[in-house]
Amino acid sequence: xxxxxxxxxxxxxxxxxxxxxxxxxxxxxxxxxxxxxxxxxxxxxxxxxxxxxxxxxxxxxxxxxxxxxxxxxxxxxxxxxxxxxxxxxxxxxxxxxxxxxxxxxxxxxxxxxxxxxxxxxxxxxxxxxxxxxxxxxxxxxxxxxxxxxxxxxxxxxxxxxxxxxxxxxxxxxxxxxxxxxxxxxxxxxxxxxxxxxxx
Length: 199
Description:
alpha/beta, Rossmann fold, 2 domains, 4-stranded parallel β-sheet, about 50% helix
């Protein structure tokens, strides 16, 4: 049985290009897709492929590139070991040597070439992931230096907060009344109460 696997990192990204490439080798109903990060292999579609209803000995799995499986070098090695143990052939479209059919008894040639290429490609995939994380970190640091606030906006406390808080705590007014007097929504009010009580 032939299967295909396609993955993009987020729901906004499009799978069409990968599916189109895989359809040359696999029927569309046998193409499994995920819209999830490649930082590890814990993805619904991919795990289903490896589960009871998926790949069996003698099956072939097609992917457009090695980083569709994972962007983590260690994970890629483990996955390749899994395919080897289960006797499932992995064919990677942008790795032509993985598509070659060799005569009986000469599979070691293919395996040797693939092992070298896989080592190189998995290192590149891992490096790309680390580079992306490094750039994100640098972007956050640069934004902080420029005085930009990242994340949830800082909630300003009304001048009369402690006075209204005291009235509410003494039971003179309800929480709803306190929020009304402060012009605050429920979540903001209780968040500020928590911060205020910690001080």
